[in-house]
Amino acid sequence: MCSSRIVPALLKISIAVIYLNIPVLAQQIKWACIGNSITQGGTASFGTFKSYAVPLQSLLGTGYMVENDGVSGTCLLKGGDMPYWTKGKLANVFAFKPAIITVKLGTNDSKPPNWTGVGLPQGCATDSTHFVADLTALVDTLLTISPKPRIFLCLPCPAFYNTIAGINGSTIKNGIVPRIKRVAQAKGLTVIDINTAMAHDSLLFPDGVHPSNTGADSIAAIIYRAYMTVTGVKNNARAFAPHSGAAARTGLIVVTGNKGEVSPGLASTAKAVDLYNVKGTALGSAAVRPNGTVMVDKSKIGEQVVVVKIR
Questions:
Q1: Which one, 78, 89, 105, 194, has least CB within 10 Å?
Q2: Domain around 135
């Protein structure tokens, strides 16, 4: 055989080997965060605050791609003052084609004009029928994305002061939260309860509505834990098992100095807490002080700590 024919043949074999050894990268799971200013991040009276989408991306890792589709001021109600339907980023969400969508709307719906309809140009009655119907319609709309995404409905953060455009914590807790649960049950969707989880964390909301950066970390951790628990992506169900009642509440500590303090709100009868990081790794235990707080040593446990079990 002519040597000139052997060389091209060897080149073909070599090229084939090279192609066969190219690693195939796993496709990232796309995650869209729909929401208002708490999702978008921005500037409040106390300064700038980050979106919880940023720490959520960090927690999920490189196997996920988190898109921030939050728009400040938006509400769920179609007849509200700034409906996400027309002022949000639905087009972006559809173009993104996410596998997972978290919907965290409702805070701005609690404003008196939006909730009662009084003073709105549309003159729309915004009773429970409209909220339930509009949220159901949003879910149905999102489910038309192909391939069909998995949708999680987040219960809004609590509002501790009713000073920002009339945002009302009582309306959120007693009006909006039950209606979101009703839609989730009817549509077979998972609820992520940020409202209850942060009910005692007023210090993480400097203006009563918007979270500090620590608060954003907390929101991300709550969403992350709920997702991991429901999907069983990682074997950490014990660490992220749901809890109920003040004596078993879950909280997040973000250490900023050599030591950090958990948000007040632990039951006064609690004596100690078991600590985990946000990915479920046990970090030991700590004693509860008389004022209901816990001090932890940053050098021993790192930046973020989850109080999973209170004893």
A1: 78
A2: 26-233
